[in-house]
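Supplementary Methods S3. Complex input for the 3,4-dihydroxybenzoic acid-bound model.
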Amino acid sequence: MQRRQALHALFGSAIIAAASIGHVYAADAQPFKIGFILPMTGQSASTGKQIEAAIKLYMAQNGSAVAGRKIELTIKDDGGVADTTRRIAQEMVVNDKIDVLAGFGLTPLAFATAPIATQSKTPMVVTAAATSAITEQSPYIVRTSFTLPQVTVPIADWAAKNGIKKVVTFVADYGPGLDAEKFFKSQFTLDGGQVVGEIRTPLKSPDFAPFLQKLADLKPDAVFVFLPSGQGAAFMKQFGERGLDKSGIRLIATGDVTDDDQLNDMGDVALGVVNSHHYSAAHPSAMNKKFVAAFEAANKFRPNFMAVAGYDGMHLIYNALAATKGKGGGDALLAAMKGQVFESPRGQILIDAQTRDIVQDVYIRKVERVPAMGNQLFNVEFDVQKAVKDPAKVK
Ligand code: DHB
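Predicted complex, serialized as structure tokens:
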């Protein structure tokens, strides 16, 4: 009897101990919350659609738990309006106790959120916006997209080496456009070329007609264009309608204009456009082929550079959480994000530990109809500048 009571006491307390371990474990294993703020409606809705599809694909492929922590993903629509982004970020941080903020489809949206990341010590992973100065707005910002100076300098070099002497720049009139304008001019001038006109178009619902007329009057050898994702098709259409594609003015651009999200619908006017960017859906690596096939199977549309930055943003966050053995914490996560190197569908990428900005290869591509890929239009890579650091941050 005594012995049985002793056993009972032993097992009883063992059960209590097990239960309390279980309890402690459960309390420890709060879900890890990732809050994406994206433009799912409005002029930049394609950016939200692409990034949402990519992060869902990433989770389908890699599971929804890291180091024992369940990943809880929230996606909220800011409509591309900075005040809304800021309000959502505030709610996510204060009410939802989010662990990581991510997304930011346009530069002003990232700028509006930066102070919240700083005050709350929350890592803020920028997976879209591309003005160089964004990463300087908060020590908690890390970027997986790109910067305009990074993708602009290579096309300026290419133009100068390929007989283009006089260029008009044609950019959207806000952060990334002004970066593109400035860095094209400085590099092209250094390379011996001349910028003979600078045209800026409004960010909101632009009608390109009057600006294209001005361009036609200036008669440069080439026009260098940057417009944000979503505007390329309208630009190409008007460029073609005015016969500018047959006017002898060569069109060169950043890959934002020959965006994979719209490229295949642009038609022949886009053929032969030489442009520079960090991602093409036709990038011929094994990893990219698998990524594109899985993405298209899940979504019925082609991934673009926004999708890839979202996919890599998730990988960066998963890696950082794993490095903290599931503990998380703003400063620990941030430290674990700095210096990460991994293979992306675009090629190898590095998060520079000093600047928290991305270092990546930038490709020179030409728009071609590719018989081996369903006769569709693609940006076909033919040259590369390796491991390009944001030129605005190279001292
Ligand atoms: C930005 C937005 C884009 O759609 C793009 O292609 C490049 C830059 C931006 O607002 O930073």
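The chain has twelve helices and 15 strands. The radius of gyration is 24 Å.
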